[in-house]
Design goal:
The chain has 318 residues and is mostly helical. α6 runs parallel beside α8. The longest helix has 23 residues. The protein is elongated and about 115 Å long. 22% of the residues are buried.
Length: 318
Amino acid sequence: MATVVALAGEVVSMTGETADKLLGLPGDAALLYIALCRCGGDFNQAERRLRWAKGRLEAAYEALQTAGLIGATAEVETAPVLQDNAPPEYNTRDVVSALEGDAAFAGLQREVERRLGSILTPADLKQLYTIYDYLALPPEVILMLTIWCVEEMESKYGIGRRPRMSQVKKAAYRWRDMGIDTLGAAEEFLQRQKGLRTRERELLPRIGVRGRAPLDKERDYLSTWIDWGFPDEAIIMAYEKTLLKKQTMSWPYMNSILKSWHAKGLHTPGEIEAGDKSPEAKGPRTAPPALRESQRRRRIAEDLARLKHTTGRSGEDG
């Protein structure tokens, strides 16, 4: 019997090859992929819409990653922390008034347009004004934020690619939540990000990520491991243990290994090798030679005593 599929509203499309791959995966992986497509690649937005437990979500994510369906083109971004008080609904009059009466905001508009390489639309200006007025970030911090967003976009997708104003606003919420609201804090954050990117370029090929930029979720894992104090060699040890157990790369499983080591205070390869052995791997403890000889003599004496008791003869009888 033929089945009629009704497609109402917007259409979320995919290639036949992608559909074939999804048909071979668990149902949760297909649902997560559809959610990511519907949410523009925003992993956290997809997570909120699915409302799954963490383990279920990670299993589906891992299946998609193993199948090669999540790659450099999947824009997985960390969403801002939702605030109890929503920002005001700024209108065009609010923005025009700010541009005419606030020289700092007018100057910020010009610099942001120069960095983004385009004239801001009325909707873009409302988002910029939300950052400036509601989040109350200083103009110089907003400009550094914009520059950082441009550099991040170019590192992912190539020179000349520019972020949307909505992405800049999302990053602004994140900066505000992290307390990056002064020029000094912004400079410190960007310096740290520069160091992280250097570590990424050196480390990622050694843990199987080649030919593409890392996903935001993968970068979050790397940032956490570096914050925990793991050098590259220790991270590679966790990667090798992951491959041995899973036969493929699994970021959640690798994270569980490093989290366990961190909880035990083991960070360098030497500390890990010395302190992360199971009781079976350590093997039975061996007694000192003198004690072993004493134990051997005692067992022989016990054996002779049992023999004498059983036969009624002394060991000297022939």
